[in-house]
Specification:
about 120 residues, homodimer, globular, mainly beta, 8 strands, 7-stranded antiparallel sheet, Jelly Rolls
C-alpha cells in the first residue's frame, strides 16, 4: 500500500498498445499504456472501458463519430460500443478494465498484461 | 459519450471534501474532489478506494503510516483499511468508488454527490 507514480511506471517500457498493470481496484486492473498509431476497432461485451489521457492526445473513433481526447481528459466507452483508439504521436493513458478482460475484447488477439 | 475535461469540471465548484460525479464506469462513480485540511479517519467495509492526485499534494494517513501523494500519483486504499486524506494546501483529486458508497463510509455523515 503505497503511492504509484504513473510517470515512473510509464518510463519502464517503450512498447505501444501494451498495457502494464500498476494497481488493483476491486476486481479491476489499473494500467498504464502508450498509444501510437491505430488500434483495431473492437468492443467489450461485458464492460465499460475507462481511458484517462495523462500526456499527449488520442482520438477515440466510434462507428459514427470521432473524439479528440487530450491530457487531463477522460473518455469512457460504454460496454458493447465499438471503438478504436488512435494517436498520431505517442500518447500516455491510464486504462481501467476488469481483471482478465482482453484489451482487444478477444482473448485470441489480446496483449498479455504484465505487472510493473 | 464524449471527453470529460477534469479541469473544467473542477472549476465548477469551490467546496472541499465534496465529490462531484463526472462519469460512470460500470457500477462505479468517477468523481472529482478538492481536498483541503483534514478528513475524518474512516473505512469502507466493502470496497477499495481509488485516489489519483491531479494537482497539488495530499497525505494519506493510515493507522501505522503516512504517505505523501503528489500530482500524477495514484493511491488505492484496500477495503477495510482505516484511512484519512488530508492536504495542507488545496489538492485536486480523481476519486472512484462504487455507486452509492458514502464518502465517509457511513451514510449518516456522508456528503451527497452531485453530478456535473
Amino acid at each position: 500500500m503505497k503511492p504509484v507514480n504513473l510517470a515512473e511506471k510509464l518510463a519502464m517500457f517503450d512498447s505501444h498498445w501494451d498495457p502494464h498493470v500498476v494497481a488493483d481496484y476491486n476486481d479491476n486492473e489499473v494500467m498504464v499504456v502508450k498509444f501510437a498509431g491505430e488500434f483495431p476497432f473492437h468492443l467489450h461485451e461485458e464492460t465499460d472501458d475507462f481511458f484517462l489521457v495523462l500526456e499527449g492526445e488520442m482520438v477515440m473513433d466510434l462507428e459514427d463519430a470521432s473524439h479528440a481526447v487530450k491530457a487531463g481528459e477522460l473518455f469512457i466507452v460504454p460496454k458493447g460500443v465499438t471503438h478504436r483508439p488512435r494517436a498520431k504521436a505517442e500518447c500516455k493513458v491510464l486504462l481501467i478494465e476488469p481483471k482478465g478482460e482482453p484489451n482487444t475484447g478477444d482473448p485470441a488477439t489480446a496483449a498479455p498484461k504484465p505487472r510493473i
